[in-house]
UniProtKB/TrEMBL annotation:
UniProt entry tagged with the keyword Transmembrane: yes
TM segment ranges: 90-112, 119-136, 142-159, 180-202, 214-235, 275-297, 312-329, 341-360, 366-387, 399-423, 429-448
Membrane-protein topology: Multi-pass membrane protein
A Pfam family the protein falls into: MFS_1
Species assigned in the record: Mollisia scopiformis (Conifer needle endophyte fungus)
Stated name of the protein: MFS general substrate transporter
Length: 456
């Protein structure tokens, strides 16, 4: 071999060795890393999976305040009806317009909810509902004409519908949802309990000044502003209009596609059999509550011969029972099964209603009415909790909105029906009709499907 060939051979050998050294170093480093690095422990993985995100307490508080505002709005109506009649010089039949316009607000929400969820995130929808509720209280405080006063109940109903339906949907997704649903609905019961006392005290002090009782609405106005501020702070991560901006950048075919998707979701929702079972249940449930609560004073005065000045506070006994029932019965209702426990509560309510009907004693009637409120308390939150496990997540806001509309329909139709019947047969027809509604409510709940028990 020539010297030139030997030189080339040595250069190639060195190049090969040099190229092999980094590979050997990499292999050694990987081997060292494989020895020194501790393998991931299955226990650590399990612990990481079991770590739950912290509860969004501020958001839950905001949801509770929204229901408190709704309860104060709804609870004041019965106490203020006599003052509405004297201020506006109207008959009792005109009061039905208030129930009707409130129902219309919920109906508009049910028709638009699916489309709005495509345009706005959760925080924006809640803020819209809270803002709408500020407007009617602002208008009412200055003694508007009766036509405008009636329209304000449409606005309050619409605002409540948007905020309450989406607050229900949000709360149903947190850990321990049954407890927190009980909490927010207890806040509604607290609003019902507080409102008659505040409204009555202000109305009594200003009874010699025509229309001054409407200063009461400054109280829910302040709470409505607080409600709006809490929504903007608690849900600030989803209060924006980015989806609207994205929508503006879409072409016409894409917008039509989204509209068709929203319409398709509505059709899909309406085909769910269980939706109509829940609608009927809430229809009769709210019919029981509003019918018994709306006519109890008249019944106690006309049939049980109680004093009007004293009987006016009796509805607060039922509202207090509803408040306590939603707080104290939420846990046992969830633990032993919503389906079983609500049937038990319905049986108890039916027995109490029979005593109310068949025992002609004033004190007994008041006691039975208040205790029945306690056992009726957990129905709403438990029903929403079960519904949230049955409906698909993307249909929940629209489905709950539809359910609440049917509930409001029951709350408007049955009190009006009692009024028509009572005008011919007397208010003594109240107890048997309420007993019948309790039976029908129980039957509809028996058709609610069973859901799998979930672990927390």
């Amino acid at each position: 071999m020539s010297s030139l060939q030997k030189t080339e051979h040595n250069v190639k050998s060195n190049d090969i060795k040099a190229s092999q050294e980094p590979i050997e170093l990499q292999v050694r480093n990987l081997a060292i890393e494989g020895v020194t690095e501790e393998p991931t422990s299955p226990t650590n993985i399990t612990d990481a999976e079991n770590i739950s995100p912290p509860l969004p307490l501020l958001k839950l508080l905001s949801s509770g305040v929204s229901f408190l505002v709704a309860g104060i709005n709804d609870g004041s109506l019965g106490a203020l009806i006599p003052y509405m009649l004297s201020t506006y010089h109207i008959s009792t039949s005109m009061i039905s317009l208030i129930y009707f316009t409130t129902f219309l607000g919920w109906l508009v929400c049910a028709l638009t909810n699916t489309h709005l969820t495509k345009l706005f995130p959760l925080g924006t929808l809640l803020a819209i509902g809270a803002l709408i509720q500020v407007i009617p209280h602002t208008l009412r405080a200055w003694t508007p004409p009766f036509a405008l006063y009636v329209v304000t109940f449409f606005m309050s109903g619409l605002g409540q519908a948007y905020q309450d339906s989406h607050a229900n949907t949000f709360v149903s997704t947190v850990k321990g949802a049954h407890r927190w649903l009980g909490f927010i609905h207890a806040c509604y019961g607290l609003g019902l309990l507080i409102s008659p006392f505040v409204a009555t005290s202000i109305a009594v002090k200003t009874q010699h000044e025509n229309g001054k009782w409407m200063l009461f609405y400054l109280f829910p106005l302040g709470l409505s502003v607080t409600n709006l501020a809490l929504v903007l702070v608690a849900f600030r991560d989803s209060v924006h209009l980015s989806q609207i901006i994205d929508q503006e950048g879409l072409s016409d075919p894409e917008r039509e596609g989204r509209s068709r998707a929203a319409a398709s979701e509505v059709k899909q929702m309406l085909k769910i059999r269980d939706l109509w079972v829940f609608c009927l249940f809430f229809f009769f449930y709210l019919g029981v509550c509003t019918t018994s609560g709306g006519w109890i004073v008249e019944f106690l005065v006309r049939v049980r011969h109680g004093e009007l000045s004293e009987m006016g506070y009796v509805p607060s006994g039922s509202y207090g029972g509803i408040f306590l029932g939603r707080l104290l019965l939420a846990e046992p209702t969830h633990r032993y099964g919503e389906r079983r426990m609500l049937l038990l509560y319905a049986g108890i309510c039916f027995a109490l209603q029979l005593v109310f009907w068949l025992v002609p004693n004033l004190i007994s009637s008041i006691a039975m009415f208040s205790i029945m409120g306690f056992f009726l308390g957990p129905f709403f939150a438990a029903g929403v909790s079960v519904a949230s496990k049955i409906f698909p997540k993307h249909l929940q806001p629209a489905a709950l909105g539809m359910i609440f509309v049917m509930a409001q329909a029951g709350g408007a139709i049955f009190p009006s029906l009692i009024g028509v019947i009572a005008s011919h047969a007397g208010v003594k027809v109240l107890p048997p009709i309420v007993a019948g509604l309790i039976v029908v409510m129980s039957v509809t709940w028996a058709f609610v499907p069973k859901v799998d028990e979930h672990r927390e």
